[in-house]
Write a structure and sequence with these properties.
Elements lengths: L1 H31 L2 E6 L4 H16 L9 E6 L4 H14 L3 E5 L1 H10 L5 E3 L21 E3 L6 H11 L5 E7 L3 H16 L3 E7 L5 H9 L4 E4 L3 H5 L1 H9 L5 E3 L2 H5 L4 E4 L2 H16 L17 E4 L1 H7 L5 H6 L2
Parallel strand pairs: 1-2, 1-3, 3-4, 4-5, 6-7, 6-8, 8-9
Antiparallel strand pairs: 10-11
Helix pairs in contact: 2-11, 3-4, 7-9
């Protein structure tokens, strides 16, 4: 009996030691991997491509989830309270780098830490949004990629396709700082080109159908900036404008694929890859956000939805079709 009791005690001790040893090894392994927290505002094709490009670039740089890094991806589904709690989660986990995809995500991360490096996944005007001191010399813990599109080229494209157009509708979300900046620029550019503008805003996706239909009834074409609210309801806007036979010229390539007519736009996946490269450089110790300028894609590409042009009875000039991606 004594031998049996001794055997049980010995076995229990061995199992206990093995359990804690295993736990400590797992904990050590987890701690050895840098945590990269990616916070995405919501889901729509443009932001999803930026996320995918970021992860692919990290993988190409040798940072693979579960092997050489721990990827913590959080999607706030457009909820500000989620943005705040998810940002706090990254900080409490000791993230090595945090990535904000879209301006509200980046602003939530910036409010959560002034020490952890933050990379902007797609922020139109980092300096204007108060995220960095200067786009060329950020000065703090934030750097990243701008998704500012070539607005002047987009308006030139409108006049090339619709030379008789006189009034351009501008539709954006009044709650997005990045959209306000772009809309202000678009109004000035249109004025310089001798075009009239009719400007309307929405506060949520619920407004897009009614406001979009009203705007479409008053203009010759609609231009929309890089705007997460409009992008999330692009199909709704397309339906409203189609009923009036009015084309949409969005700032983003994926919004052309969803029913817009044309744009000179940036490759969203390429923006993501640029973001991932900047994250990898920080993880490698080769980059300091304070001295790393905001980066931009070199140029936009002409993208035309020929099927939509046919639906609306619009003839696209041959030279534009030859230049289009």
């Amino acid at each position: 009996m004594k031998k049996m009791i001794g055997f049980i005690i010995g076995l229990t001790a061995l199992l206990t030691i093995a359990f804690f040893t295993s736990s400590n090894e797992l904990e050590t392994t987890e701690m050895d991997k840098p945590i990269v927290g990616i916070l995405q505002l919501t889901s729509h094709p443009a932001l999803d491509l930026i996320y995918q490009g970021t992860v692919d670039a990290l993988n190409d740089a040798g940072y693979i989830d579960g092997e050489t890094m721990t990827l913590d991806f959080q999607n706030a589904q457009g909820d500000q309270s989620n943005l705040n709690s998810m940002s706090t989660r990254f900080v409490s986990r000791g993230a090595a780098v945090m990535v904000g995809i879209a301006t509200p995500s980046a602003q939530a991360l910036a409010n959560s830490s002034q020490e952890i490096p933050i990379v902007l996944g797609a922020v139109t005007d980092p300096e204007g949004s108060g995220l960095v001191a200067n786009n060329d010399a950020p000065g703090g813990n934030i750097t990243g990629v701008s998704d500012l599109t070539p607005i002047e080229e987009q308006f030139s494209l409108i006049t090339e396709i619709l030379p008789e157009a006189q009034t351009i509708g501008i539709l954006y979300s009044s709650s997005e700082d990045n959209s306000i900046v772009q809309a202000d620029q678009a109004i000035e550019i249109a004025k310089e080109m001798g075009l009239k503008t009719e400007v309307m805003t929405v506060s949520s996706t619920n407004d897009v159908s009614q406001v979009g239909a009203t705007l479409a009834s008053q203009v010759d074409a609609i231009w929309v900036p890089t705007d997460n609210t409009i992008a999330s309801a692009m199909n709704t806007l397309v339906s409203a404008s189609d009923q009036n036979g009015i084309p949409i010229f969005p700032a983003v390539d994926t919004m052309v694929e969803e029913g817009g007519l044309a744009t000179v736009g940036l490759d969203q996946y390429a923006l993501g890859r640029l973001t991932g490269e900047m994250v990898a450089a920080i993880l490698d110790g080769d980059s300091d956000p304070a001295t790393t300028p905001i980066r931009y894609l070199d140029q936009g590409e002409i993208i035309i939805n020929e099927e939509k042009a046919s639906e609306l009875g619009i003839t696209i000039p041959t030279q534009l079709l030859e230049q289009a991606k």
